[in-house]
Design goal:
The chain is α+β, with helices and mostly antiparallel strands and about 475 residues long. It contains 14 helices and 16 strands. The chain has a single domain, classed as Glycosyltransferase (Alpha/alpha barrel). The strands form seven sheets. Strands 2-1-16 form a three-stranded antiparallel β-sheet. InterPro entries: 6-hairpin_glycosidase_sf, 6hp_glycosidase-like_sf, UG_Glycosaminoglycan_Hydrolase.
């Protein structure tokens, strides 16, 4: 395993997230706003921007705190101050766990309310990062009930005419407005990652109808959202697989299921390969195979993963830079693989796309182990680690934080400070791009992003579950 991956378990990682969690509750408890992104330039550089609690990203920051809690409970050997061989400042384990648990309790509160929402498909993203861990780590039945309620709410958005779950109620851009609930039915590739909630609830409720909705949705998107890609076999190393890219948004006729239009809301163009959309597809279909064991879904997940890797490996040479004696950046995805590169000295990236795709590839590697395909298992595991290690080399914030234990700080509570005074950046990763679409806006380009950090920490926890750390 690349040594750079150990940065995911560093004191800096813990310290940053503790500080954001504690400071974010000031005049915001219970939370009415949640961390979303960290500007890399401008007046508020380095500080998390908090977004209203009903925005689709609200679930990721509580998920970050729960990921840290999971480490403190199940994997103390990688948790700073808790049994780590190199620590010189031991901290009572129960104190830090209590701190994390208190923060979890504070940030998760409003998330329960979201389970009743029927105006969004993002309930998997909103609920699962925190509520599922709260149930599985602390046996909180209220969290399980909210997960099951949320699954039913998500299922209520299923349209039998389309044989899919409605993603958005509207799409408003400079050149178009789509907002009819009777004439339009918008489905985005991101929706594949919300199916996990339906599968999970189906098992707990012994209700196969929820899983059937998820499977039907996944099959519909195989026909509507996937594009077959042709690349040279010697380049793809795909062992005769069919390779796929995907469309971001498809608008259907709600009654007939006929496709009216294919678009993008966050990529460069309808026919381009938006990197995070490709990553959502990899993870979503890998999860769907994990639940169903239907090899058709596995084939799609592998085809999406292979095309993602091929695009990384064949990206222009300008993606590589030389730092600290080595070349880095090859495996940090461009924000859209087909978008013009506006500045070859600093190509626009999306670190979140990379860590999301890596999570999907790690899940694929486990599936291949179960099938006895050791070659592909090793390929996807190695690729996932290579992507995340390169992202840490290229995108990890150099502004670090450290923890002052109570004895050192003179305070009863755990304190966090900058390693270098005045050098602060709240997120672990930089260079994420939520949106650079010319038909929408450029507010979300090249910054820290909450779900980039969440999927980075989840990747680290996934490696722990697999026994690689």
């Amino acid at each position: 395993m690349p040594r750079k991956l150990l940065d995911m378990y560093s004191e800096n990682t813990l310290a940053k997230m503790l500080r954001v969690a504690k400071e974010g509750l000031e005049n915001n408890n219970p939370p009415i706003a949640y961390p979303e992104f960290v500007p890399q330039r401008g007046e508020n550089t380095g500080k998390y921007f908090l977004r209203e609690k009903d925005f689709w990203t609200c679930g990721f920051f509580p998920g970050i705190i729960y990921s840290l809690l999971e480490r403190s409970i199940k994997y103390p050997h990688v948790f700073p101050f808790l049994g780590h061989e190199k620590t010189t400042r031991p901290l009572d384990s129960s104190s830090l766990r209590r701190e994390l648990e208190a923060l979890c309790n504070a940030w998760i509160g409003p998330i329960h309310e979201m389970a009743f929402r029927k105006d969004t498909h993002d309930l998997g993203f909103i609920l699962q990062p925190s509520l599922r861990k709260d149930w599985e780590l602390r046996s909180n039945e209220a969290s399980l009930r909210s997960l099951l309620t949320g699954a039913r709410s998500l299922a209520s958005r299923y349209g039998s005419g389309v044989r899919a779950i409605r993603s958005w109620d509207a799409l408003n851009q400079k050149d178009i407005t789509i907002n009819s609930m009777t004439d339009d039915f918008l489905v985005i590739i991101d929706s594949m990652c919300n199916l996990d909630l339906l599968f999970y609830a189906s098992k707990h409720l012994c209700d196969p109808s929820l899983a059937e909705i998820a499977v039907t949705h996944a099959r519909t998107l195989m026909k509507s959202h996937l594009r077959t890609e042709h690349v040279a076999e010697k380049d793809s190393r795909s062992r005769n697989m069919r390779l796929y890219s995907n469309y971001h948004v498809v608008n259907f006729d709600p009654q007939t299921g006929v496709i009216k239009e294919r678009r993008t809301a966050q990529g460069y163009s309808p026919d381009s390969t938006w990197a995070r959309g490709q990553a959502w597809g990899i993870l979503g279909y890998a999860q769907t195979y994990h639940w169903t064991k239907d090899k058709e879904f596995l084939s799609v997940a592998c085809g999406l993963a292979e095309y993602f890797l091929w695009r990384l490996e064949t990206a222009p040479q300008c993606v590589e830079v030389y730092r600290q004696g080595k070349s880095i950046g090859r495996y940090v995805p461009l924000w859209d693989f087909d978008a013009p590169i506006e500045d070859e000295g600093r190509p626009l990236r999306d670190s979140s796309a990379g860590v999301i795709a890596a999570n999907g590839m790690l899940l694929l590697s486990q599936s291949m182990v179960a099938l006895g395909d050791t070659l592909l298992a090793e390929r996807y595991r190695t690729a996932a680690m290579k992507i995340v290690a390169d992202i840490l080399d290229y995108c990890q914030s150099r502004e670090e934080a450290t923890i002052l234990v109570p004895e050192a700080s003179g305070e009863n509570a755990i304190q966090v400070k900058d390693v270098e005074s005045g050098q602060r950046f709240d997120s672990i990763l930089k260079n994420a791009t939520a949106n650079h679409n010319s038909q929408d806006h450029d507010r979300y380009s090249d910054h820290g992003l909450v779900y980039a950090d969440y999927f980075l920490l989840e990747f680290g926890n996934h490696l722990l579950r697999m026994g690689f750390v």
